[in-house]
Amino acid sequence: MLSILLTAGLLTIISAQSIPCGTPTVQPVTNRIVGGKEAAAGSWPYLGLLVDDLGFIAGSATVLGDHVLVTSAQHFEGPGYDVFDLDLKHWRVYLGEHNIHTADPNEKYYHFSRVIVHPGFNISSLANDVALIITRETIQLNNNVRPACLPDPTHQYQVGQVCYLPGWGSTSSTGNEEVLNQVDLPILADSVCQTHFPDFIPDGEVCAGYENGNKDFCGDDIGSPLLCKDLNGMWFIQGIASSGGNCTFANEPGVFEDVPRYSVRHSHSTTCHKQNRWRERGSCGNMAYLGLLVDDLGFIAGSATVLGDHVLVTSAQHFEGPGYDVFDLDLKHWRVYLGEHNIHTADPNEKYYHFSRVIVHPGFNISSLANDVALIITRETIQLNNNVRPACLPILPTSTKLVKSAICLDGDQLLVDLPILADSVCQTHFPDFIPDGEVCAGYENGNKDFCGDDIGSPLLCKDLNGMWFIQGIASSGGNCTFANEPGVFEDVPRYTNWIKTTMEQAGYPYQY
Ligand SMILES: *[C@@H]1O[C@H](CO)[C@@H](O)[C@H](O)[C@H]1NC(C)=O
Ligand SMILES: *[C@@H]1O[C@H](CO)[C@@H](O)[C@H](O)[C@H]1NC(C)=O
Ligand SMILES: *[C@@H]1O[C@H](CO)[C@@H](O)[C@H](O)[C@H]1NC(C)=O
Ligand SMILES: *[C@@H]1O[C@H](CO)[C@@H](O)[C@H](O)[C@H]1NC(C)=O
């Protein structure tokens, strides 16, 4: 069983199949010879070939589990484009592949269901150049397709250790780029790399190769793993090819993401600094926190809540549902309107923003609606003013479900008070209510509830200092025609740490 936590619980993967990591059935050729060479077929069963929507080779990825591969983020985001610009639904990853021009007996391809770019990926510096691919189909693990081992997060790379970079790129100049080639690369000291690349990041990158050698990797090997053998003879992924590959003039080493730094949850302080620069004393009726989501066809999709000058929080179900996911939506043409009051007139304070990224909670379950939380990162900086303000995140990281609260409804600008109900009340209405992640509010026989188009709206409660904080995100149960059922909200205190960590990694830490 493989258990991985990438960046603050971004993703927890459990592989059910009992294939060991890092143990090929065909041993790779490891005797040292100068120059690259063709790899023994089947000796790097971890390697996948990424093919884009037009059928071109995009690079490589490494199998980590029966639904997960790791690669570099730059396949999906770069200057002037991001995941929304790519037709990822039509990308594929070939596994069990050796010769790319023939149909190998063991090859099989898989589609993507999700790509999770590291939220801290910086397209200029290439910091955090890591992404996970979640496949739509279950990867069949067998003798030809196996996961690589992830190193222990405390693992320090050993300068001088010779590791291997397999790839279909022109990497090893064997003259045969149809087949999987490999090149052996010794790990170099950070200081060596810094003389070649002033922007080398010792905290996140590792350098391998030769300063005056004749072996390096080429651009089309971006995302390929640097694989090293541990003391038990198992192959683990030490690096992910990120930059520096110059296969024509191989006088420079290659720069790799240092994988142990991405293997685990980063520890962050859970202390909430109570500096509320946007202390709000009015009623929630001014809706200064609320954004109106409009889809690519101009229809209202729901609401979102401002958390900072580039970030809003909403429900994940706007972006993924039965039969569709973020790739099926033309999110590039979605907008969020802020400072909005009347949706049918152009209010003097309204302004809209585009999305640059949507981060769906990795635990979101489209059936149970567990973890129905997503962050929207806007392309433009949100102008914060009297009409557009961030809501407070709950102070207490653990849930304290209050007794009374209010909800601001969008659409017809209704402001509805909804008392918070005991979990047991909600469970009688909804057997699948999740007390550990949801909070219930409203009336059992009342005349007030929320409607489907309020999904993602915040349940705002006032704390003892008179500040409005977001207690819930409308998720299900809204039945505005027959308001005899309460509404079910994601219980935000349980997501405060995920929200804060993800915002920080996206480069826009929560500041209030
Ligand atoms: C991204 O990297 C560039 C170049 O190193 C740097 O100037 C910029 O501040 C970084 N952006 C973020 C959000 O960290
Ligand atoms: C490769 O190295 C040569 C010689 O240093 C340089 O002229 C060329 O621009 C480099 N190419 C890339 C893609 O960095
Ligand atoms: C998602 O929810 C459904 C319904 O509650 C459940 O059967 C399924 O196991 C859940 N999936 C995961 C991956 O937790
Ligand atoms: C709303 O409640 C009524 C009465 O219980 C029910 O017939 C209807 O199906 C419900 N609508 C939704 C969308 O759940």
From TrEMBL:
GO aspect biological process, one term: proteolysis
GO MF term list: serine-type endopeptidase activity
PROSITE patterns attached to this UniProt entry: TRYPSIN_DOM
Coiled-coil regions, chain positions: none
Residue ranges constituting the Peptidase S1 domain according to the UniProt record: 33-504
Family, per entry: Belongs to the peptidase S1 family. CLIP subfamily.
Cleavable signal peptide: 1-16
Cross-referenced InterPro entries: Peptidase_S1_PA, Peptidase_S1_PA_chymotrypsin, Trypsin_dom
Record protein name field: Peptidase S1 domain-containing protein
PANTHER family in UniProt: ACROSIN-RELATED, HYALIN
Keywords: Disulfide bond, Signal
UniProt xrefs under Pfam families: Trypsin (PF00089)
SMART domains: Tryp_SPc
